[in-house]
Amino acid sequence: MDSEVEAMNISLDGPLSPRALTGLGMNCLFGQKVRPPGPGLASPLEFNQWLPYRHDAGLLPMKEDLAFWLNTIMGGDLTADSLMESLDNGVVLCQLAQLLQDKMMHPNNGKLLVRRVIHWRADASSGSFFARDNTANFLYWCRKIGLEEAYLFESEDLAMRMVMVDIKYR
């Protein structure tokens, strides 16, 4: 029995132990989550500069997953870095809606859903009225097929994201 306890103590202190891997010990499994430290609140300017980078780092895995999914569905070559620039004019979103609509079945009877005409302007430039209109048409289609509002975004969100990027890098 004592040898089992000693073996357990050795394994808990070994190179693959929770303490060695996380630096937190066994309490990390049940205790508070520890995040890498950011700037303190003593310097609001430093905190305001740090916050967007922390936010972007949290979105990276979602962007990677979305880019992978879109590439699988549409056969594109999107990356996490190019994702927002590819989506901001709404063309890819409308093409996705068209592609999904061609494959969708009604959940109750297994028949194809009623097809809806999805209008978009392929030459819409980022931030233009036509880009917003393309995105609004995609969102209209989403609502018509029954997606709940909680899962949607505002058409202005993509355009404003690009405006914020422009402001950030000036």
What report would you give on this structure?
- This protein has one domain: Actin-binding Protein, T-fimbrin, domain 1, CATH 1.10.418.10.
- The protein has 170 residues and is mainly alpha-helical.
- Helix 7 runs antiparallel to helix 8 (155-168).
- The radius of gyration is 24 Å and the shape is elongated.
- The chain has 8 helices and no strands.
- The model is unreliable at 4-10, 21-31 and 163-170 (pLDDT under 50).
- Residues 60-170 form the Calponin-homology (CH) domain.
- This is Growth arrest-specific protein 2.
Secondary-structure blueprint of this entry?
Layout: H1 2-13, H2 18-22, H3 27-30, H4 44-74, H5 83-87, H6 91-103, H7 129-144, H8 155-168
Protein name: Growth arrest-specific protein 2
GO biological process, one term: actin crosslink formation
Pfam families: CH (PF00307)
Distance between the termini: 67 Å
Low-confidence stretches: 4-10, 21-31, 163-170
Query: How many helices in DSSP terms?
Result: 8
Corresponding CATH architecture: Orthogonal Bundle
Give the tally of structural domains: 1
- Content-based structural category: mainly alpha
* Helix content, binned percent: 55-70%
Order of helices and strands: HHHHHHHH
Report the biggest beta sheet as strand number plus sense, adding barrel if it closes: none
Question: Looking at the structure, what is the overall shape?
Answer: elongated
CATH superfamily annotation: Calponin-like domain
CATH class: Mainly Alpha
Mean pLDDT: 75
Strand content: under 5%
Q: Tell how many strands the DSSP assignment holds.
A: 0
Radius of gyration: 24 Å
Pfam family, one: CH
InterPro entries: CH_dom, CH_dom_sf
GO molecular function: actin filament binding; cytoskeletal anchor activity
Protein name: Growth arrest-specific protein 2
